[in-house]
Amino acid sequence: MSRPVSIPDHLLPADGRFGSGPSKVREDQVGALARAGRGLLGTSHRQAPVKDAVGRIREGLGDFLQLPEGYEILLGMGGATAFWDSAAFGLVREKAQHAAFGEFGAKFASVTDGAPFLAPSTIRTAEPGTRTQVLAEEGVDVYAWPQNETSTGVMAPVRRPDGVERAVPGSRGPLVVVDATSAAGGAAVDLQETDVYYFSPQKNFASDGGLWFGAFSPAAIERIEEISASGRWIPDFLSLHSALENSRKNQTYNTPGLAGLVMLDDQVRWLNEQGGMAWAAARTKDSSDRVYTWAEASDLATPFVTRPEDRSTVVTTVDFHDDVDAAAISAALRAHGVVDVEPYRKLGRNQLRIATFTAVEPDDVSALLACIDVVAEQL
Hints:
Elements: H1 27-40, H2 48-64, E1 72-77, H3 79-90, E2 96-100, H4 103-114, E3 122-125, E4 142-146, E5 148-149, E6 154-155, E7 175-179, E8 196-199, E9 211-216, H5 218-228, H6 240-247, H7 258-274, H8 276-297, E10 301-303, E11 315-320, H9 326-335, E12 351-355, H10 362-378
Parallel strand pairs: 2-3, 2-4, 4-7, 7-8
Antiparallel strand pairs: 1-9, 5-6, 8-9, 10-11, 11-12
């Protein structure tokens, strides 16, 4: 019988949560729930205390994202998965083109491609661990891709496709719609390169799922109003026009999870106090660089994403050699309170996936890597 794996206590991270979502929640965010107390939790989301919190979040996100003139922060129910349906109903006029280089980019592509009121989508795909990009195409009115593919640890630039001019109100030009669910809050972005930059708050923003947020350009807002007035049937729950009207009132169409709003409010405040987007991007790069440097020097593993310029700074993926059992490593780590480093379930690789979101301490990442070495040696 093999001996159980042992990791000395002094090597363990101070916090062992490295999940790619839901992510580590800071203690101060949990404390914010207690501080909210009777003044917020258990009250109406259409009354001042909750609306004030939503207003602070929208303003704080605008500050963090360096919101350009005329852009607005909108929010709605259902997370990014629901937003894909909302975008198909309320942003795509006739045809979308997608760059799909992982599970989540492909899921959004399948939504617009399957919508019976839209033309079939153009879907440009790439093998897991690599990426592709959208290309200018006649008849396309939405170009979409993820900034960070959570399933594989591939990151893509956020910039308008070559040959596609920036959409402005009245131009009927194509929109650029970027899924930033696991990137926003931990990676830099120039919103002038996008028309919709949307995300769920359970990654770098360390809150609960169930909501989506997005920065919308004036052209995107015009598109929402245009399609809403076109006679297209749109379910109320998925209506971006409804989200626009309610967001401007600092509320949602139906009741949100208030605990998630409280934690998000605290995280956005914390990020801005630390130094905003530049600070967050530098912190995640520090953490992710530690993973990639370790993997490149290791006799056990190698970065899954081979091109350094494509490697994510917020979700790192590391392949292990065939004679090393990554599942056994993750099981031993979990037994010691170091959790959620398993690979994306559908990828099926001998791999670990380590989130380096802003709430994760870089020194905890280094401690994790030391623990992996210790476990692998014993196995």
